[in-house]
Amino acid sequence: TLEHEVRSMRHTSFARPLVNRNLANHGDAFVPGWDDAAWQMGPAT
Q1: Are 34 and 25 in contact (CB under 8 A)?
Q2: Can you give the residue range of the structural domain that contains 13?
Q3: Does residue 30 contact residue 24 with C-beta atoms inside 8 Å?
Q4: d(CA 10, CA 20)
Q5: How many CB atoms lie within 10 A of CB 34?
Q6: How many of the other CB atoms lie within 10 Å of CB of 7?
Q7: DSSP of 1-45, one letter per residue?
Q8: CA 9 to CA 36: how far, in whole Å?
Q9: Is the separation of the CB atoms in 42 and 28 below 8 Å?
Q10: Rounded to two decimals, what is the model's pTM?
């Protein structure tokens, strides 16, 4: 299936990559590159 997402240009998450996002990282908590770092780490033990 193909999914899409449209955001306001004023939204804090505008222009973020739309794949494999950590849903806990949103709004004021957003840090560029943090979602990518979470996927580079090994599984939590």
Answers
A1: yes
A2: 1-45
A3: no
A4: 22
A5: 11
A6: 12
A7: --------TTSTTTT---SS--TTS-GGG--TTHHHHHHHS----
A8: 22
A9: no
A10: 0.26
The answer to whether the CB of 29 falls within 8 A of the CB of 16 is no
pLDDT tens-digit map of 5-25? 666 777 666 776 666 566 665
Distance CA 13, CA 25 (A): 10
Q: Where are the beta strands (DSSP E) in the chain?
A: none
> Into how many domains does the chain fold?
1
- Tokens in use for 29? 């908590």
Determine the average pLDDT of the residues in 20-36. 62
Please give the single-letter amino acid code of residue 30. F
